[in-house]
Amino acid sequence: MRHRTVGDLMTHTVHRVRPDTSFKEVARVLADHDITAVPVVDDCDRPVGVVSEADLLRRESGRPDPAGLLSILDTPGQEPTGPVPTTADGLMTGPAIVAHPEWSVVQAARVMDRGHVKRLPVVDETGALVGIVSRADLLRVFLRRDHLIREEITGDILDRTMGIGPDEVTVEVTDGRVHLRGTVDRRSLIEVVVRLCEGVDGVVEVTADLGYRTDEAVAIAARGSDRIEQ
Fold this sequence. Notes:
By secondary structure, the chain is an alpha+beta fold.
């Protein structure tokens, strides 16, 4: 089994800005390349933060209303304090939360969820920017065709890993939902097979209608009873 990694799914061509890049230039980069965020990198091309559309809008919302119409909506304590940021280092959200190319989809998804971010700059072993991965990129694993999922389960998992032939267990895959039907040698193998199938890229859920020839727990109990009687 080979799981697709962040390196397989990430966008390799990454637009970036420097900490001293102006507000207007950041906005121009986002608009010209139809992206919603851009990494901010230092002199060694290491990400130090990310500027998103939300960051730019947050900056704009802190400016005075030229028409004075918003004053009636303001409440005490909401007035902006301090200078309004005009460059990327003041606009960005930092420090940058990053990923590595060898990470699994699960690792990247967990970091995104915990950091409440929609994308992760991807860095190499030196910390330099090599790509960017988004939520949409990670979800691409669920676009795998059903027949490819079925081939991986029947070939890699059941046949080559578990030694279970197609005459023993059949596999049906519909919209990423896997259903296993058949018989395995030992009861304990059922959980193992299900867990392995759940780890296949593109699998949404696994259900199993599997029987077994031997229940190890019953066999062990029976042997113990025989020894006591002897």
